[in-house]
Amino acid sequence: MPTFSLERLDPNPGLGPLALGSGELLAPGAVRVSLMAHYQRAPLTILNGSEEFSLVLSRTTGLVSLAVGVLPWLELQAQLPGVIHQSGADVSTVLSISSPSRSGLGAPRLAARLGLLGTSAPEAFHLALDLDVRLPVGGSGALARDQGVRGQGRIMMGKRWGPVAPALELGVLLRRAVSTDSGVDSLNGVGNELRAGVGLTVGYALRAEVSAIGAYSWRQQRTSGELLGGLRYAPARPWEFFAMGGAGVGAEPGSPRFRVLAGMALLFDKPPPPPPEDIVYELVQGLPRAPAEPQLEPEPTPPEPAPPEPTPAPPEAPPEPETDTDGDGVVDVLDACVHEQGTREFGGCPESSGPLVSLTRERLVLHGQVFFEVGATTLPGRSRVLDQVARVLLEHPEVERVVIEGHTDAEGSSDSNQRLSLARAEAVRDYLLRKGVPAHRLEARGLGARKPASSNGTQAGRGENRRAELLLILGEPAPARSIPAPPPP
Q: Can you list the GO cellular component terms from the UniProt entry (predicted)?
């Protein structure tokens, strides 16, 4: 039996579809570990005249994979396969070919994935170059390794549009050609190949996936291909479970009638850096009170004679009324619409506008949030909440600083979510700048997925988590009332 690797499927150890890469890389410091069990039916069938023999009828393998994000543009990978059990027809007396070993260790795979485009945000177009080698070690009789070093280079690309993420892969496989003296043409010329694959993933925590992969061996002018489909489910980080199956076509050794695989993966993201300690997690702080006038001690006076009969004191002058510019009965300090008549129930604004912002003597409260589409960093259009925030800020100069916090859902890596949330906060800041709010009063911060407003397990909850919130501070923040940022979970 000649020595060559029968396996034609190269599972993806990193981000993207299971059967091919999408060009997206793990964030620096992130680690993904996966375990997979794999069954193939009739991956090696040979012809002798009109007779057909399944030299390998049943084959069960296992695979341990590791992927590590090293730099924003570099991901390193390692895989260790093994044949757990395989069996087939004994053709030693007919074709003088010995049966392969029933089990054995496969050739280790080492790879580097280089990001060329799209490493800064999950919604970007991703393009990467993947280079890998398989070392000529392992069980030579189990059809789990090649005679020499095997190399492969692939270009991967992909992009996400909401829940839909297509992927494309093109590559070339280089390995030493196999030749035998058995006269069996299907085993002669196994060697270099051109490879291609396309895939489509739909969903978030629960994802459906379909992939088609093909290869062309130019020495033997043979083609092969497979169509695979499966499901992936990530109930909560770091866990993910997956299963896939499909059928193969073609005469190239290693193309099974069908294959099924299942396994699990763990994704450990590097925790994002904690926010600055001076973030105040209050909507506002109270207006500073005017300092009380100092009390002067009276000078000693000589004793006086008994006072005459007390006379009634004159009545105190009534306090000066507070300013009400628009005359709606809500004083300016409590009026969210200083120059427009409204009602007390709507914070001094007209009933038609709705209480988007309300004022008290101690707090300024926002009754709305700014939401974003999946992966988007631009506002969907005009925002009534931000329009009224800009109006209130321009009418109330005592609001000296506005901290704009951008938030994301839990999809994507922590590094990408951090950049995405900051871009969303800056989009809100730019909106308020265009409305005339001075730049020195606005500060944008990105918090990623660390402060969800709802559960990331549902589509509605993820939609609520893709938002921007505004922390409005009246006056300078007092150290005694500052609440430091909570530690990341």
A: cell outer membrane
